[in-house]
Specification:
about 30% strand; two-stranded antiparallel sheet; single chain; about 90 residues; alpha+beta; HU Protein, Chain A; about 45% helix
Length: about 90
């Protein structure tokens, strides 16, 4: 399912106009992104959680040239599947 399909499903199920459904989806992703940017965890009970994982700087290697390089510290978003979702997908 992509974003447009999500908007279409929300429109039909919640009996919203397409522009209202689009605004809801846009707001949801915007607020979720803002929470992650601030370093907060986003948890949707029974479905999943998102959190930011911090990495320290480390010495890396360019796989093409084999040349050593310093990788800067970074933060990456992570997704963790909820127990209920795991069970539903596995059944």
């Amino acid at each position: 399912m992509n974003k447009l399909e999500l908007i279409e499903t929300l429109k039909e199920d919640a009996k919203l106009t397409k522009s209202e459904a689009k605004a809801v989806v846009k707001l949801f992703f915007k607020e979720m992104s803002n929470a992650l940017i601030k370093g907060h965890r986003v948890e949707i009970r029974g479905l999943c959680s998102f959190y930011v994982k911090k990495y320290k700087a480390y010495a890396g290697r360019n796989p093409k040239t084999g040349e050593s390089t310093q990788v800067k510290p970074k933060k990456l978003p992570f997704f963790k599947c909820g127990k209920e979702l795991k069970e539903r997908v596995d059944s």
